[in-house]
Amino acid sequence: MFFMHKLFFLLVFICTSVFAEPIYHEKKYPDGKGPFPTVLILHTSGGFRVGEIKNWSSFFLKEGYAIYAPNFFERHGITPKKRKLTFTKFRKPIEKNLTEIVEIMKKDPKVDSKNIFAVGFSNGGFWATFMAGTKQVSASSSHYGVWQFGPSATADLRGYPVKYIKKDTNPLLILHPKKDQVQKYKWVKSYITKVAKKSSKVEVHYYKKGGHAWHNKKYKKGVGYNREIYEDAMARTITFFNKYKK
């Protein structure tokens, strides 16, 4: 019996220690001593793809921003096929995970804690909206973000990520393609309109060209790829962040 008690407490200690650690994340700084304004990069439903993270990061690093990129799938065993679990079973845990990453960023001496921003792509766009709505970052940008889940959405999910946004939200830039074949314009327009009406700090820009994953030649055989739109979206995002630097 004594052995079983010791084993039980050992297992509890191990599990507590493991999950006390923050989720996996990578960081990179531009040249110089800092502290630097820093961007939290939030990945797509494809997961934490090193090549994508590096590509996105390059735009910010050359403009003097540091980057933090968390993998919010791995801890919860989420895969691209199980991506919907991000917004249902694991929504609350991921909220906590990302909040913890922001707290880590604030304690990093090379990060300017007054100038932390977030950019999210597709799935990550949902979380960029969360970050702006909860005022954890100075401003956020959502690129072809997730806005609707269809009639199969569970009761606790309906209305998100719109529910994150309040009148006094921090600035949010929404960039969405009208030819998006995943989060289709005809489906998401009403949700994005609701968000824009909630707060004057929400800015929206629709692209006539390009589609979902406009940065990716391989996604769905490159149907949404458009390098010009991709570069424009990143430039708009950086301009937006610069506007709200303190």
Structure description:
The chain is α/β, with parallel strands linked by helices. It has a single domain, classed as Alpha/Beta hydrolase fold, catalytic domain (Rossmann fold, 3-Layer(aba) Sandwich). It is 37% helix and 18% strand. It contains six helices and seven strands. It has helices at residues 2-20, 50-61, 91-107, 123-133, 185-198, 227-243, and strands spanning 25-28, 36-42, 66-70, 111-121, 139-143, 172-177, 202-207. A seven-stranded mixed beta sheet has the order 1-3-2-4-5-6-7, with helices on both faces. The longest helix is centred in the first third of the chain and has 19 residues, at 2-20. The chain is globular and about 50 Å long. The termini are far apart.
Q: What attributes does this structure have?
A:
Rossmann fold; 7-stranded mixed β-sheet; single chain; 6 helices; 246 residues; alpha/beta
Number of helices: 6
* Largest sheet: spatial strand order: 1-3-2-4-5-6-7
Head-to-tail CA distance between termini: 60 Å
Please provide the ordered H/E string of secondary-structure elements.
HEEHEHEHEEHEH
- CATH topological fold name: Rossmann fold
Please summarize the sheet with the most strands.
Answer: 7 strands, mixed
Q: What is the residue-mean pLDDT, rounded to a whole number? A: 91
Task: Give the name of the CATH superfamily.
Answer: Alpha/Beta hydrolase fold, catalytic domain
Envelope shape: globular
CATH architecture: 3-Layer(aba) Sandwich
Kindly state the percentage of residues in helix: 25-40%
Strand content: 15-25%
- The domain count comes to 1
CATH class: Alpha Beta
Secondary structure tally: strands: 7
> Which class do the helix and strand fractions yield?
alpha/beta
Low-confidence stretches at least 5 residues in length (pLDDT < 50)? Answer: 7-18
**Radius of gyration (Å):** 19 Å
